[in-house]
Automatic annotation (TrEMBL):
Protein's organism: Acinetobacter oleivorans
Enzyme Commission code: 4.1.2.50
InterPro entries: 6-PTP_synth/QueD (IPR007115), 6-PTP_synth/QueD_sf (IPR038418)
Substrates-to-products reaction catalysed: 7,8-dihydroneopterin 3'-triphosphate + H2O = 6-carboxy-5,6,7,8-tetrahydropterin + triphosphate + acetaldehyde + 2 H(+)
Top enzyme category: lyase
Keywords of this entry: Lyase, Metal-binding, Zinc
Keyword Metal-binding among record annotations: yes
Pathway(s) it belongs to: Purine metabolism; 7-cyano-7-deazaguanine biosynthesis
Family assignment from sequence similarity: Belongs to the PTPS family. QueD subfamily.
Protein name as annotated: 6-carboxy-5,6,7,8-tetrahydropterin synthase
Coiled coil region boundaries: none
Cofactor(s) the protein needs: Zn(2+)
GO molecular function: 6-carboxytetrahydropterin synthase activity; metal ion binding
Amino acid sequence: MLIRKLFKFENAHIVRNCTSDRCKRSIHGHSYKVELLLKASKLDHGQMVYDFGLLKGVIKDLIDSFDHAICFWEKDDSQYIDACQTFSARWISLPVSPSAEQFSRIFFYLAQQVLQSTNTQNGEGDVEVYSVIVHETDTGYAQSFIEDIQNEQMGILSLDGIVFSEQIQIEWANPQMYEDLKKGMKFNNPQVDLQVEV
C-alpha cells in the first residue's frame, strides 16, 4: 500500500550545464511541491502505513530547510559559492547540481536515511520510501525511485555531502538532528497506549 505526503517550499538556484540559457546563467527560483510516497506491506496498530503526524518531525524539518534558501552545486565556481554564502543566511551546498531530478534523489535519500534511523513504536511494518516526485513548475516534475538513489552515474549522495548553513540548522526543532543522523543515532517515535486491543 502507498501513502503520499505533500510538502511545499520556495527555492533559488542555478542549474549549470543545462541547455536553457536562462537556467544555466541566472539565479532563479521556483515554487516547489514535493510528493513523498511511502509504502508498506502491513499496517500499524492505527491501521495506517505511517501516521502522517510523524512526517511533521525530522523529515519535514529537512525538506523545509530548502524553503527560502539558495542551493548550489559544490563544484560550482568558488566566487559564486562565496557570494551565496555571504549574501544569504539560508544556503545549502549539494554534491550534485540542484535540478529537479537531483532534488527528487536528495529528498528520497534524506527521507530514507531518517526512516532507517527511526525506532517505530506502534506496530509499523516494513515502511520505506517508494518514490519522490518534485514539481518544479505546474507543468514539469521529476520522479525518483530506489534504483536512482543507488545509481552512481547520477552522482553519489551522502549525508556528509549535503551541507546546511548555520541559520538553517538553528531553525530546526533540534539543531543537532543532522549531526545525530550522520552519527547513526536513532530517532524515537512516540509510544502509543492502545485504546482497543489489536
